[in-house]
Structure of Helix-turn-helix domain-containing protein:
Amino acid sequence: MANVKNSITSSHPIFRDQLVTVADLEILKTELLIAFRRILAETTPQSQKKWLKTHQARKFLECSAGTLLTLRQNGTLAFTKVGGTIFYSSEEIEKLLSSRIQLHSKQKLQRIVTAKKT
């Protein structure tokens, strides 16, 4: 009998008159699912949505509806309104958060410099 190499799972020889059991099929299924999940995780971009609705922006910023309204009204956070739905750009929210971090860092640095001068 000729040995046939199984290139998918193992290097054990498989004979042509060898039976495949249900357990073997379960193992194959599990291995395939693991391989598919790994491939999907590697190829699927982990990016977020480009446009967020109000409740999604609130969750992302962890703020109240009133705070989000204030940010929108005073021009701190840009938005787009389509019909009755307000959308916020996730990029703009990221920029807002980044600019606030830098602003606070600059303010702390100014306080330190001012305190050392006096």
The two ends are 93 Å apart (CA to CA). Residues 51-117 form one domain. The chain has a mean pLDDT of 80. Helices lie at 22-43, 54-61, 65-73, 90-117.
